[in-house]
UniProtKB/TrEMBL annotation:
InterPro entries: CdaR-like_regulators (IPR051448), PucR_C-HTH_dom (IPR025736), PucR_C-HTH_sf (IPR042070), PucR_dom (IPR012914)
Protein name: PucR family transcriptional regulator
Domain Purine catabolism PurC-like: 2-117
Pfam families in the record: HTH_30, PucR
Originating species: Paenibacillus shunpengii
Residues annotated as domain PucR C-terminal helix-turn-helix: 473-531
Length: 539
């Protein structure tokens, strides 16, 4: 409205929409205009459509629904006034209607505004190039994120917020504590737990009636670890969005570099974990102090030891690529544990990551919540490995929670057993925790030679008969046990006729003896079946 050519114009309606961004200007006199509209268009018209009472509202609604910037109408060519119902509709939607009281050359308007927009776009590109160059210099000079935030504030002239789960939150310029808390809460609600849909995207969040924050998450290894926000009372422009995008990429670079440096510095944890695995630390206070835990006057910590085994299915992968993948997984694991406020020690040994997690036992749900956190973290790491690392699979297991850190070696032994069972018994593949192994805790505790002898004692004759006659009696026995003795369900699961099942059951009784379904025999047979299955898949 400040352009010289608009000195002859005035706002007739929709003053609340004067903040709208104009992207382009063109003339539309036809009534079916939706296909020719784009967001941000400023439409020029002689108002011929206003003469058609049935169609004029529809014309204006098409403009509103297409998110056009506004409408310019000239008087004196087709009309000399705008009907009240059209003005009311424009006011209701905050859609600006600009009126020229006398005819005006539309070509002059388009030339003026298009020249302005093109020049502005050229200047925007120059500013962005300059910003990009400066931000690159900053990322090369140090790992100081605050300098990047100051630069963003300088170019956007808006309040900048940086919310992080890995570091301290930062605001530039500084804000009052209650405002910082409000912005942090808004980030947690609107950004931190939102699904990314496979890509980073800007998120508009309302702070109050007049203020919005344009957030963009900082994504590393497919996980949101922080976010940069611009607090504004205006509609964010494309320029602001691009500045934010450049900033977030720079912050992600610095954050990733910081995490790799931290990973390098924390390699001395290998010695602490190695001592725990070898039972060389006997003083609980010394152990907790070495982990950086504060000593509790009341209550206790819970400790869970776990192992993540990295399997490379691609046989021709170079060792350098394997090592790089291992480092990525280590950095992601540390970052996720840090994000979830889980104190930890982590050690890489060959293709295995040993992790010891601690949590202050505050409520009865502490152990369950810690296990849920570890389950989520494991799922995130497995997803990253599958999607980003070629031919890599993660096998993980965690031991029982213990109140003493010096007993961690037992947790790691249990974690190994979980991995062995999950790899050797298909139905136990999703199992992550030793507590949930059930009867396999007993089976893994027994030596393989004993298990082989146990299977031979209870199923040997049946296995030999099956191998010789191929009657599938072993699978029939397994299905019958799984169906709790239901003949109908057993026949369904095996896709066989009932009479075929009856014949097989008669043969089972003949081989196993008449008492094979008595409680003590049945329990022994079921245990032998589980042991046989585990031994078969372990080969």
């Amino acid at each position: 409205m400040n352009r010289p050519i608009f000195k002859r114009a005035h706002i007739a309606a929709g003053e609340k929409g004067l903040h709208r961004q104009v992207g382009w200007v063109h003339v539309l006199e036809i009534t079916k205009i939706s296909p020719y509209l784009s967001r941000g268009d400023l439409i020029l018209s002689t108002g011929l459509w206003l003469k058609f009472e049935q169609e004029r509202k529809e014309y204006l609604l098409q403009l509103i629904q297409s998110e056009a910037a506004g409408l310019c109408v000239e008087f004196g060519t087709s009309i000399d006034h705008i009907p009240a119902d059209i003005l009311e509709l424009a006011d209701e939607h905050g859609f600006p209607i600009i009126v020229f009281d006398k005819p005006v050359r539309f070509v002059e308007i388009t030339q003026d505004i298009h020249s302005y927009l093109i020049n502005r776009q050229h200047q925007l590109l120059k500013d962005l190039e300059n910003y990009s160059r400066k931000i690159q210099q900053l990322t090369l000079q140090s790992t100081d994120i605050s300098s990047i935030l100051r630069l963003l504030h300088e170019y956007s002239s808006q309040q900048v917020a940086y919310i992080s789960t890995l570091e301290h939150n930062q605001f530039y310029p500084s804000v009052e504590p209650e405002d910082a808390a409000a912005i942090t809460e808004l980030y947690a609600r609107e950004v931190e737990h939102r699904s990314l849909g496979g890509r980073e995207s800007n998120i508009h969040a309302a702070l109050d009636e007049d203020t919005t924050i344009l957030f963009q998450p900082v994504v590393i290894f497919g996980q949101v670890f922080s976010g940069v926000g611009i607090v504004t009372r205006e509609q964010p422009t494309e320029a602001v969005s691009l500045l934010l995008d450049y900033t977030v990429k720079a912050v992600a670079t610095l954050l990733l570099r910081t995490q790799f440096l931290e990973e390098k510095m924390l390699r001395n944890q290998n010695g602490i974990l190695q001592d725990l695995l070898s039972n060389r630390i006997h003083n609980e206070e010394q152990a907790q102090t070495s982990m950086g835990l504060r000593l509790l006057v009341k209550g206790q910590y819970l400790f869970i030891g776990g192992v993540m085994e990295i399997e490379h299915r691609s046989k021709n992968m170079a060792e350098e690529r394997k090592e790089a993948g291992h480092q990525d997984i280590m950095v992601l694991l540390r970052s996720l544990l840090k994000k979830n406020n889980v104190p930890h020690l982590v050690m890489m040994k060959m293709n295995q990551i040993h992790v010891l997690c601690a949590k202050e036992s505050i409520t009865k749900d502490t152990e369950r919540n810690l296990m849920l956190t570890l389950q989520t973290i494991t799922a995130d790491i497995s997803r990253f490995a599958t999607q980003q690392l070629e031919g890599v699979m993660i096998h993980a297991g965690f031991g029982k929670a213990r109140s003493k850190m010096i007993e961690s070696s037992r947790s790691f032994e249990e974690a190994y057993q979980v991995i062995e069972v999950s790899r050797s018994v298909p139905q136990m593949n999703p199992c992550l925790f030793y507590d949930r192994l059930g009867v396999y805790q007993l089976l893994k505790a027994a030596p393989n030679e004993f298990l082989k002898s146990f299977v031979q004692d209870h199923l040997g004759t049946l296995i030999q008969y099956d191998e010789k006659h191929e009657l599938q009696l072993l699978s029939t026995l397994q299905a019958y046990m799984n169906a709790f003795g239901s003949k109908l369900e057993t026949a369904k699961s095996l896709y066989i006729h009932r009479q075929t099942l009856y014949n097989r059951l008669d043969k089972l009784e003949e081989i196993l003896g008449e008492d094979w379904l008595q409680p003590h025999r049945r329990t022994s047979i079921e245990m032998a079946l589980l042991a046989h299955d585990m031994l078969q898949h372990s080969r």
